[in-house]
Amino acid sequence: MSPQLLTIEMTRLDAGRVRLRLTGDLDYDTAPELIAAAAELHGDGHQQVMIDLTGVTLCDSSGLSALLVVHRAAGAIRLTGVNAQLQQMLDRTGLSELLSAEAAGDDDVRAIG
Fold first, then answer.
1. Cα gap 66→85, rounded to integer Å
2. Would the pLDDT of 68 be above 80?
3. What is residue 81's DSSP assignment?
4. Could you read off the pLDDT of 2-40 as tens digits, one per residue?
5. Is this prediction's pTM over 0.85?
6. Which of 52, 85, 83, 58 is nearest to 70 (CA)?
7. What angle, rounded to 10 degrees, do the helices at 61-74 and 31-43 form?
8. How many Å apart are CA 1 and CA 96, to the nearest integer?
9. What confidence category does residue 42 fall into, taking pLDDT thresholds of 50, 70 and 90?
10. Which position has the higher pLDDT, 91 or 45?
């Protein structure tokens, strides 16, 4: 199976909030794209970033690291659409508490930060 490129769609929700919708693989090759997108937002004055992971087909340790970098830079992020593989990775690494997230299909979105 060939790797999927990562696409990041940015939507400004309202004052101080933005959503990044990721599609494809969040891995060693694509994690810098997420970090760069988040860095642009930081300079733009956004206070809360929602990261929609519904379209993410693979997330490795580099992708998880990129999510942590975004969390540290933004101060407050929300993860939505977390699939079972990523939730298991969050649980195994002990990051479930820090990066509490909405599972795919779950309506309850919890803020982190």
1. 16
2. yes
3. E
4. 567 999 999 988 877 889 999 999 999 999 999 998 888
5. no
6. 52
7. 10
8. 29
9. low
10. 91
CA distance 44 to 55: 25
* Residues contacting residue 60 through CB under 8 Å, at least 6 positions apart: 26, 27, 28
Q: What is the total residue count of the chain? A: 113
| Strand 7-14 to 48-59 pairing | unpaired
Amino acid type, 67: L
**Cα–Cα distance between 42 and 81 in angstroms, integer?**
23
Strand locations in the chain, DSSP E? 7-14, 17-26, 48-59, 77-82, 101-103
111, 48 contact by CB (below 8 A): yes
79 phi and psi, to 5 degrees?
Answer: -105, 130
Alpha-carbon gap, residue 34 to 51, rounded angstroms: 10
Distance between CA atoms of residues 85 and 59, nearest Å:
8
**Amino acid in position 3:** P
